Amino acid sequence: MSELTSKTCASADSMHEAALKAKVVLEALPYIRQFHGQTIVIKYGGHAMVDETLKRQFALNVILLKYIGLNPVIVHGGGPQIGDMLKKLNIVSQFRDGLRITDEATMDVVEMVLVGKVNKQIVNQLNLQGAKAVGLSGKDGQLIKARKLEMVLERKDMPPEIIDLGKVGEVLEINTKLIASLEREGFIPVIAPVGVDDEGETYNINADSVAGAVAGALKAKRLILLTDVAGILDKDKRLISSMNERQAMQAIENGTVTGGMIPKIKCCLEAIHSGVEKAHILDGRLENSLVLELFTMGGIGSEIVAG
Ligand SMILES: Nc1ncnc2c1ncn2[C@@H]1O[C@H](COP(=O)(O)OP(=O)(O)O)[C@@H](O)[C@H]1O
Ligand SMILES: CC(=O)N[C@@H](CCC(=O)OP(=O)(O)O)C(=O)O
């Protein structure tokens, strides 16, 4: 009798669990419907590539998006990975306003690590899990046309200072036709943030900027930046779930947001300005963060919306 009771309980438990799972799947239905056929640009930052489990989870999340009818486009970073390689080669690297000062030798290492290593690891991981992923640098099909970035520092009562960052570039144009044709054939484009100009010069571009430019050029439904914090935090370090363009600008102006978060928010704002509906910033170190952000009511990170 007691055995029967415990069996009955076990099966009631598993029924309950199964019912919960079905509920979770069904709750995602309105979001799946909303995003079906839409392009989602995901910036996969170097700090979010923590370990093999997390890398595999990321690939599975992206593949799920593809299978349910979204068009994920990945733009990846790899700042920490570049840093490690430069250290091994005894090349000192310096940053100015979050951008790596890039001389010829550093450019070679940046391209080698981003295109030759990080890009291929992501492509490999996606393909191993059943996707058709294609790795591209900005040189392939002239995907990212770039020019040298002119950093101008305004100074009070003095002429502005021009800062030479070497081979750091900014995006001029994205070859959207190439991305669209890959999408049509069911491929997931995986893009390394290396650009090229008309003379064939190579440029190192911040991956957030490339992701913003790709999202804007594709008029993506969403731009998602995966980083190493929960999202945009207020002065008391509490997560701000949602803010509009005006509030985001204020957060920069009043110093709530500093350091690497400033260019992130700026590229979200530019993307929204170019027609992207919403931009999200979330913690890529959290398992299944992409699915949780896109398919649950409140999401887990911060969103920036027009207005
Ligand atoms: N208000 C803020 N909310 C969240 N992060 C902030 C804020 N202000 C500054 N930051 C910093 O911005 C960092 C994210 O930028 P960055 O290090 O460039 O990320 P990534 O390497 O992923 O591109 C956070 O780790 C945090 O230290
Ligand atoms: C000009 C510039 O700074 N380029 C970056 C490109 C990689 C990047 O942006 O990677 P994360 O997103 O992982 O930081 C760099 O050299 O580190």
Automatic annotation (TrEMBL):
EC annotation from Swiss-Prot or TrEMBL: 2.7.2.8
Main localization, broad class: cytoplasm
Pathway terms, separated by semicolons: Amino-acid biosynthesis; L-arginine biosynthesis; N(2)-acetyl-L-ornithine from L-glutamate: step 2/4
Domain Aspartate/glutamate/uridylate kinase span(s) in chain numbering: 39-283
Compartment(s): Cytoplasm
Residues binding substrate, per UniProt: G78, G79, R100, N204
Keyword Transferase: yes
MF terms (GO), sorted A to Z: acetylglutamate kinase activity; ATP binding
Annotated site (Transition state stabilizer): K43, K264
GO biological process, one term: L-arginine biosynthetic process via ornithine
Record-stated family: Belongs to the acetylglutamate kinase family. ArgB subfamily.
Descriptive protein name: Acetylglutamate kinase
Organism name: Desulfocurvibacter africanus subsp. africanus str. Walvis Bay
Phylogenetic classification of the source organism: Bacteria, Pseudomonadati, Thermodesulfobacteriota, Desulfovibrionia, Desulfovibrionales
Gene: argB
